[in-house]
Design brief:
- The chain is α+β, with helices and mostly antiparallel strands.
- The protein folds into three domains: about 270 residues, 7-stranded beta/alpha barrel, CATH 3.20.110; about 90 residues, no CATH class; about 220 residues, Distorted Sandwich (Beta-galactosidase, Chain A, domain 5).
- Helix content is about 30%, strand content about 30%.
- Strands 15, 16, 17, 18, 19, 20, 21, 22, 23, 24 and 25 form an eleven-stranded antiparallel beta sheet that branches. Strands 1, 2, 3, 8 and 9 form a five-stranded parallel beta sheet that branches. Strands 10-11-12-13-14 form a five-stranded antiparallel beta sheet.
- It is elongated.
């Protein structure tokens, strides 16, 4: 007699905060809706469902009938609704108060909408930390789901994971279910009978009479991933799978997490390390470490001694993304900064309506997707990063507008926001906020408050390990059918030809007000390709700073004594850079004084800036050069204009403009910042922003100073 196997099917549906509405709609029509329609015809096949709060909110507004269907299925016992952080945060990297707040928000939504209290939790990206049992138990949750790789890293074999375990932190317990990785790769990409064969193998294993197998995975793989809608519904894979489950119901029972923990004893206690699924841990590694990881994995695979070589070599941990990508760390530390401000405001205001609004903005800014990069992570997607900043700026604006927070307007303060050991200066006014780093006196962030928008949010162009795969693909050495239904990790295609020619890597992070001294023969193309000689030591050099009060705002005076030139021809130069944010004007004023200490100062002085309005070729986003006719004005265009005193970037869709006023007029270079990244549908080019670089020729001797004034002006546009 075949031993019994219990199969738990869990579904996780999510779309990022800030994602395009048409993506939500496509996911609904292609995956979320048809999945429910099919399972509604199989009332004896239960499953667990987790929708992120982002998605619940959208569905409630656009397709309330979906919630009614879920409610009916839940009332009938077919659907177990799972909890999680409401806006899909990575719980381990947000403060405990926010963890509990997000979990409470989801619990309250489920209780009010579906008249049930969730017992278990979907863990965002299955990112586990040994301290999580205390968090989850504190939120009243009984179970959580992680990958089997978490267990394998502690020495468990696949045969030892046919159930659930207890884990604890200081006496706070939670039940932990491991996901069967083989099922993740079988379903729905292989014939349903292959999954049934896998269950048969489990049934034949020695040990307890009942084995529990878990598949908890992205719902998008049932219709939204490349080729899966045709597979699941056109070829009726999902119905065939349900039919196969029913045909084998004498030994294969489909159940839910809650039913299992109510009747099956745990397999013991377990302590898991900080981990995620194996692919995530690979992506989190730095470039050189990734290369070594893949070599080690391939060597183990070639030996034939290890059935799962990827499980024998450990990747990184999710927090490595905060090291690997400066932009991720900056968003994260800005989020922590705003979280602290929201919390302090709540203590002062007795949790009033303003605090509630600010807290919801903060929680939306904690949505994980924009903070990391892999096949799904959205760090490379400007609209997702922009959404994070928009909600952070909105939260700050709410707090600054009332109570003690309002005193921060028209003032400057200094601190180390991102924890890199180098301080930042924050200038704040009712309309703008500017954050400058002492290293290089560079502008790290420039925020408009209304509408809430980070004007300098861009991404540094970096070498990625998959760029080698792109080179092989373009050489005809690798590839795949972009329409074929395969695991998302196996897609190898490019969305356009010649992407390899766009691979340019930056020497420094992509900030603004970056001060370059370059040779006089340096041109636009060389500068854009980062193929030029830097004559000064000011880009990353430390500046001294002093803060001065002025009539309607603070002034920060940065100063550095450095060198320009090479060897014995280097000239000592002092760069004085006074930056102010007048309270009555939505503008950042920058006054340069370049003073050589003897000798000739020759070459070019270029001030590099990057601004982003999210779309490089949209007709409602363009450059404007007052008083002159320029043929190509879309934001992804490149070119140079002589004697420019004023230039603007216009975004009619957002209703914002950002412009430079230059005195004296300068040669102006403009070019797009574009990255090449891998996504779930192949390699793609992504517009990150537009570089605006005014350039002045220098020809001065002795100690004669050069004066240069730049005004970065932000404006709002009427519809």
């Amino acid at each position: 007699m075949r031993e019994k196997v219990t199969f738990i099917l869990g579904l996780h549906n999510h779309q990022p905060v800030g994602n395009f509405d048409h993506i939500f709609e496509e996911a609904y029509q292609q995956a979320y809706k048809p999945f429910l329609e099919v399972l509604s015809d199989y009332p004896d096949i239960p499953f667990a469902l987790h929708n992120s709060g982002v998605l619940w909110d959208w569905l409630l507004e656009r397709h309330p009938g979906y919630l009614e269907t879920v409610g009916r299925m839940a009332a009938a016992g077919q659907v177990e609704i799972m909890s999680g952080g409401y806006y899909e945060p990575i719980l381990t990297v947000i403060p405990e108060r926010d963890r509990q707040g997000q979990l409470e928000m989801m619990r309250d939504f489920i209780r009010k909408r579906f008249k049930t209290v969730p017992r278990g939790c979907w863990l965002t990206e299955r990112i586990w930390d040994p301290h999580l049992p205390a968090t989850l138990a504190g939120a009243g949750l009984e179970y959580v789901i992680v990958d089997d790789s978490h267990f394998k890293s502690t020495g468990f074999t696949a045969e030892e994971m046919r159930g659930f375990f207890l884990s604890e932190e200081n006496g706070a317990y939670v039940r932990v279910f491991p996901i069967d990785k083989k099922l993740r790769y079988l379903i729905p990409f292989h014939d349903p009978e292959e999954a049934i064969d896998h269950f048969r193998q489990l049934a034949g294993e020695e040990g307890e009479a009942e084995k529990v197998a878990v598949l908890a995975d992205d719902g998008e793989k049932f219709g939204l991933w490349t080729g899966t809608h045709s597979l699941c519904y056109g070829e009726k894979w999902l119905r065939r799978f349900c039919d196969a489950l029913q045909a084998n119901s004498d030994w294969l029972e489909v159940s839910t997490f809650s039913r299992v923990i109510d009747r099956v004893p745990p397999r013991g206690i377990v302590y898991l390390p900080t981990a995620s699924y194996s692919e995530m841990m690979e992506w989190a590694l730095p470039l050189r470490a990734q290369e070594k990881y893949y070599r080690a994995r391939d060597l183990l695979a070639a030996s034939g001694e290890f059935p799962e070589p990827a499980e024998q070599v450990r990747g990184g941990l999710w927090r490595n993304f905060l090291v690997k990508y400066e932009e991720s760390n900056w968003m994260h530390k800005r989020m922590l900064q705003v979280s602290d401000r929201v919390d302090r405001y709540g203590e002062e205001s007795a949790l009033d309506s303003t605090w509630n609004k600010a807290r919801r903005h903060l929680y939306q800014a904690q949505c994980n997707c924009a903070y990391w990069h892999g096949l799904f992570g959205g760090l490379y997607l400007p609209h997702l990063r922009s959404a994070v900043f928009r909600h952070l700026i909105e939260a700050e604006a709410l707090i600054y507008g009332k109570g003690s927070g309002s005193k921060k307007f028209n003032r400057s303060y200094q601190g180390d926001i991102d924890g890199d050991g180098c301080g930042e200066i924050v200038l704040s006014s009712p309309s703008l906020q500017a954050i400058l780093k002492l290293q290089g006196a560079r502008l790290r962030e420039l925020d408009a408050r209304r509408p809430a928008f980070n004007l300098t949010d861009t991404l540094t162009r970096r070498e990625e390990v998959y760029h080698r795969e792109l080179s092989r693909l373009e050489a005809g050495e690798a590839g795949g059918n972009p329409g074929e239904a395969v695991s998302i990790h196996e897609v190898k295609s490019a969305k356009e030809e010649g992407l390899g020619e766009s691979l340019v890597y930056d020497r420094w992070p992509r900030f603004s007000l970056v001060d370059h001294f370059i040779p006089g023969n340096t041109g636009l193309e060389a500068f854009a390709a980062v193929d030029f000689e830097e004559l000064g030591d000011f880009v990353e050099g430390m500046y001294n700073v002093r803060q001065e009060e002025s009539g309607d705002g603070g002034v920060c005076v940065f100063e550095r004594k450095g060198l320009v030139g090479k060897g014995g021809e280097a000239v000592p130069v002092t760069v004085r850079k006074a930056v102010s944010l007048p309270g009555k004007s939505p503008a950042l004023e920058v006054k340069y004084l370049l003073t050589p200490a003897g000798g000739k100062l020759r070459g070019r002085f270029a001030v590099e800036n990057v601004f982003s309005f999210l779309a490089g070729n949209a007709p409602d986003r363009y450059f404007e050069f007052p008083g002159r006719l320029v043929k190509k004005i879309h934001l992804a265009s490149r070119g140079q204009e002589k004697d420019v005193a004023e230039v603007s970037m216009i975004d009619r869709w957002l209703g914002l403009s950002v412009g430079l006023t230059l005195d004296p007029p300068a040669l102006l270079w403009r070019f797009p910042i574009e990255t090449v990244s891998n996504s779930d549908s192949g390699f793609e080019r992504v517009y990150q922003g537009s570089a605006l670089v005014p350039v002045w020729d220098l020809e001065t001797t002795g100690e004669k100073p050069v004066e240069i004034n730049i005004v970065i002006r932000v404006g709002t546009l009427s519809p």
